[in-house]
Design a protein that fits this description.
It is a single chain. The protein is of the alpha/beta class. The protein is built from eight helices and 14 strands. It has helices at residues 12-21, 32-35, 49-59, 61-70, 80-83, 107-110, 113-116, 194-205, and strands at 2-5, 26-29, 40-43, 75-78, 88-89, 94-95, 102-106, 123-128, 130-131, 147-152, 154-158, 164-169, 173-180, 183-186. It has an eight-stranded mixed sheet with strand order 2-1-3-4-14-13-12-9, with helices on both faces. Strands 6-5-7-11 form a four-stranded mixed sheet. A two-stranded antiparallel ribbon has the order 8-10. The protein is globular and about 50 Å long.
Length: 207
């Protein structure tokens, strides 16, 4: 059984629909206790980092996720869920879950020239990945340079570049897939990326 964390962020149910289309048993819940017996957890979401952290603390999911990762159980963060696993986000100047060392920064903070060049932020649309730093089980069986759907204004900036298993080019190298042990994260939306995105979800669920 796959547990999906519901913390009042956007786009949660689209992940549930994607898993059901793959005939994968899943449960979506706002209560950590309902997910305690799951084999794997998916932590999706779209929205604001400050609000998300408030919701996680109110529901107890912040402590639940920290303990889950401490036990090296598989987790997949998606979009906002890929960001607030880090230490701190510039969006709302908020301390996050601290499951992976690093910060989340706005595109223009990382490279002010992007604003001068009128690079559109948020990045919205399909962008291809470049794989790096060895194999990653959730990327197994993908074609070369696969395209995935991105919607984001803030960028993952890990302290350890070796955790970045794939990146996309959007004026800067945008870390797109993270792995630290059994903790995985995708900045893009696999559930909105067609067959290659469903392949990532299946790979994770079959770990």
């Amino acid at each position: 059984m796959i547990g999906i964390v519901d913390y009042n962020a956007g786009n949660i149910t689209s992940v549930e629909r994607a898993l059901k289309s793959l005939n994968i048993d899943c449960i979506l819940s706002k209560n950590p206790a309902n997910l305690a017996n799951c084999q794997k957890i998916i932590f999706p979401g779209v929205g604001d980092a400050f609000f998300a952290m408030q919701q996680l603390k109110e529901t107890g999911f912040n402590l639940f996720l920290k303990e889950w990762v401490k036990q090296n159980k598989p987790v997949l963060g998606i979009c906002l869920g890929s960001q607030i696993i880090f230490d701190w986000s510039e969006e709302g100047d908020v301390n996050c879950l601290g499951l992976v060392e690093g910060k989340i920064r706005h595109f223009y903070s990382i490279n002010p020239e992007l604003k001068e060049k009128e690079t559109k932020v948020p990045q919205i649309g399909f962008n291809n990945l470049v794989l790096q730093n060895g194999e990653c089980p959730i990327l197994k069986g993908l074609p070369d340079n696969p395209d995935f759907y991105f919607v984001h204004s803030y960028v993952i900036c890990p302290d350890n570049p070796q955790v970045v298993k794939a990146y996309a080019d959007y004026g800067i190298k945008v870390p797109a897939v993270i792995q630290k042990g059994n903790l995985f994260a995708c900045q893009f939306h696999p559930e909105k990326s067609g067959p290659v995105g469903l392949k990532i979800l299946r790979n994770f669920c079959e770990l």
